[in-house]
Amino acid sequence: MTEGSAPRFPLGLTIAAVAAFAILVGLGVWQIQRLQWKEALLARIAVTQARPAEPLAEVLARAARGEDVNFARVSVDCLDAPLETSRVVLYGLRDGEVVWRPIAPCRVAAGAYTLVAIDRGTARDSGPNPPQLVLANPRHVEGVLRRPETLSAVQRLAGTGPQNAESGYRDRAAAMAAVAAAAGGRMPDYMVVAERETPAPPFVTPAPLPVDIPNRHLEYALTWFGLAAALAAVYAAMVWQRLRRPSRP
C-alpha cells in the first residue's frame, strides 16, 4: 500500500457476511411463520377435543364446499362390502423407539367417496420390524380427520425409515395411496386417525390427539436472529478496525 492510501474495503468479506446474515434472518423469519402455524394448530386441536364426533359424510361434504375440516372429529360406520385388503403399516418414532401404525381400508357411503383409510393407532410390542398383524377390518370408528402431508424431497433423503410396501411407509399420504390401490376405491384427501373403535382391534393402542405438542419456534427464531445480530456486530467491528488501521508507506 502506498503512502497516504486508504485501507481497501473488504468486498469479499462483505459479500460473505451479507449472504450469511440473509440466511440467518431468513431462518428466523421461517421460525416465526412456523410459530404462527403451530399456535393455530394447537388452538384447533383444543377446539377439536371439546367437540363431539360428526358423521364423516357431513364433514366431507363441507370439505367439498371448500371448508377446512382438518382435525375435525368424525364418526364412521364401515360398510359390509367385502374388501381385498393388504397389510399397510406406517413407520414412526416415539421416545427414540420404532413404532408401527396399521392402516386399514373402510368402505363408506360419503358422497363421491366410497373408501377412507383408518389409522388405527400403534401396534403394541411390534419391535424394529413391521408387525405381522392380521386384523379384522374396522367396523365403527371415532377419530380425527387428518390431511396427510407427503414427505418433501429433503425429508426423503434425510429420513432413516422405510418407504415401501414390504417394510412400511414413512408418510400417511403414501400409506393412503397403498390402501386405495389395494381396495380399488377413490380415497378422500383425508384420513381418519382412530381414537376408538368398536369392536376394538387386538394388539393395537388407539392414538388420540396429543396434548403435549412442543412449541419452541419462538426460541428457535430468537436463536437465529441472535446469531444474525452477532454476525453483524463481528463484521462491523472487523470493518471498523480495518478502516482505522493506519496507512503504511
What does this structure look like?
By secondary structure, the chain is α+β, with helices and mostly antiparallel strands. The chain has two domains: 81 residues; 134 residues, no CATH class. Helix content is 38%, strand content 22%. Strand 3 and strand 4 form a beta hairpin. It is elongated and about 90 Å long. The model has no long low-confidence stretch (mean pLDDT 81).
Q: Can you count the helices? A: 5
Principal-axes shape call: elongated
Strand content: 15-25%
Q: What is the terminal-to-terminal distance?
A: 7 Å
The helix-and-strand class reads alpha+beta
Uncertain residue segments: none
Q: How many domains, as an integer? A: 2
Q: What integer is the average pLDDT? A: 81
Which series of helices and strands comes N to C?
HEHEEEEEEHHEEH
Q: How do the strands of the widest beta sheet line up side by side?
A: 1-2-7-8-5-4-3
Strand segment tally: 9
Q: Mind telling me the C-alpha Rg?
A: 26 Å
The biggest sheet amounts to:
7 strands, mixed
Proportion of helical residues = 25-40%
